[in-house]
Amino acid sequence: MSNLYHSDMYNFKEPVKSYWENTYNLKNQYKKVESNIKTDVVIIGGGYTGISCALNLSKNFNIDVVLLEAGHIGWGSSARNAGFCCIPPAKMSVEKMFKKFGEKETKKFFKNTIEGSNYTKNLITEYNIDCDLTGECNYEVAPHPSYFKSIQKEAEIYKTQFGIETEIFSKEEFNQIGHTGKEQYGAMSYKPGFAINPLKFLLGLSKKAQFYGVKIFQNSKVEKIKKISNKFNIFVNGYNISSNKIVLATNGFYKDDLIPHLNDRILPVISNIIVTRPLTNDEIQSHNFSTHNPILNVRNLLFYYRLLKDKRFLFGARGDLLGSNKSSKIMAQKMEMQIKKIFPNWNKLKIEFYWRGFVAVTTKLTPSIGKIKNEEIYYSFGYHANGVNTAPWAGKELSKIINGSNSKDLLISKLYLGLPKKFIFSTLRLFYLRLAYIYYSIIDR
Ligand SMILES: Cc1cc2nc3c(=O)[nH]c(=O)nc-3n(C[C@H](O)[C@H](O)[C@H](O)COP(=O)(O)OP(=O)(O)OC[C@H]3O[C@@H](n4cnc5c(N)ncnc54)[C@H](O)[C@@H]3O)c2cc1C
């Protein structure tokens, strides 16, 4: 079992003290497992990946599905994130992708990732999910004049190679349409791009999954899996669930404890969010903050932020290698200082919510969607902090191979396929991350 982070990160019984949980009444929406069950497919994890996969299996293929979530539905990162629907789900430059995978697969990857954004948007429309959809593009902002050229280049590649609609803005132009804060030396925009209330989206989706027949259980942590003559026996709350197939949809919360073949392949990285009290109109105008589009400050240790519809400011950053509640508070205080540095006129702002969760990074640097060879075990993870775009779509794609017993191939870009290599000396994963943080913070300075 992985002990990479403090046990506070895995306290499945605790509510998440996020701003999002404050916008929704989560009272006992789903039951917990309280009897033995037989089913065709068990999905472990009730985030976007698991719920979307379950919904598609049940709705499109009429397959009997049981979904098990350790916390409440809405406990994981799918209900903790900033709600940015952004691209691409990779930590690899386009140049490297071209070199490693070739032009055709890289172009297909970007086509798929745009399909992912559209899929998320279509789910919201088709199922009429009220999730505070906002924004008509994403902005990437240069934190220093030296970054502007690379942003211009990225916008050009997106446009010419992948047919993505982009626009470039000088610092002065972005002062008018974005904001006049610091660490703003010009920007680019791309479409599609938008933002949502992630918890409302997840709960809307899970309601639909239930409507189409998925048996959803919360407070039902999978403790152990045993295979006995071609059936999986899944142990939850002291009961046994017997199934033919398993889907692991636990992303960054996987503790290397259930399926040995999938262990040591994920580096869970903490991402943190703070949300302020509502800003006054004068405060908003003092930095001419004119947009509700999501904004990414592309420093190596990313900042991401947006103005919420009730005028609160959401600000996110990576960091914290411990994961205790105490270190989360310290991180929030640091982030409050970072906001005030970038937006000096907001020096009286108070933080009203702070929380964190895991994003999943892998050695492959792109997502992994597939099936373990010769086993009826399926997986999808490693969205590199782009789950709003990728996870619902990945869940849908995964459902196709779970259903198609003859064909185990997905018709998606190779960049998504196959497992990442295991981390060498996997107990040192956080040490590697620490080194990366030190290196990036030096460059960012
Ligand atoms: C602070 C933060 C900000 C982010 N911002 C963005 C953003 O703006 N845009 C974006 O695209 N992405 C963002 N992400 C990433 C995004 O949230 C994830 O990529 C996405 O939610 C992954 O979805 P998932 O369903 O695969 O995993 P999750 O939503 O994490 O779901 C996994 C679930 O598995 C459950 N689980 C684990 N072990 C067990 C077990 N043994 N038994 C049963 N259940 C178990 C967990 O309780 C959890 O609910 C952010 C992440 C964080 C933490």
Spans where pLDDT lies below 50 across 5 or more residues = none
Overall pLDDT level: 95
Count the beta strands.
18
Bound molecules: flavin-adenine dinucleotide
Q: What is the ordering of alpha helices and beta strands?
A: EHEEHEHEHEEHEEEEEHEEEHEEEHH
CATH domain fold name of the domain at 7-81 and 199-265 and 363-424 = FAD/NAD(P)-binding domain
CATH superfamily of the domain at 7-81 and 199-265 and 363-424: FAD/NAD(P)-binding domain
Q: What percent of residues are in strands? A: 15-25%
Q: What is the helix tally?
A: 9
Q: Major beta sheet, specifics?
A: 8 strands, mixed
Give the C-level CATH assignment of the domain at 7-81 and 199-265 and 363-424: Alpha Beta
Under the CATH scheme, which architecture of the domain at 7-81 and 199-265 and 363-424 would be assigned? 3-Layer(bba) Sandwich
Describe this structure in words.
This protein is an alpha/beta fold and 445 residues long. The chain has a domain at 7-81 and 199-265 and 363-424: FAD/NAD(P)-binding domain (3-Layer(bba) Sandwich). The protein is 32% helix and 22% strand. It is built from nine helices and 18 strands. The chain has helices at 48-61, 94-126, 145-162, 171-177, 198-211, 281-286, 325-342, 387-403, 429-444, and strands spanning 37-44, 65-68, 84-85, 138-141, 165-169, 187-191, 194-195, 215-217, 222-228, 231-236, 239-248, 267-276, 295-297, 303-307, 313-318, 351-361, 368-371, 377-381. The strands form three sheets. Strands 1, 2, 8, 9, 10, 11, 17 and 18 form an eight-stranded mixed sheet that branches. An eight-stranded mixed sheet has the order 5-6-4-13-14-15-12-16, sandwiched between helices. A hairpin with a 2-residue loop joins strand 9 (222-228) and strand 10 (231-236). The longest helix has 33 residues, at 94-126. The two termini are 37 Å apart. The mean pLDDT is 95. The structure holds flavin-adenine dinucleotide (FAD). The site of flavin-adenine dinucleotide has 43 residues, from helix 1, strand 12, strand 16 and helix 8. Flavin-adenine dinucleotide binds next to helix 1, strand 12, strand 16 and helix 8.
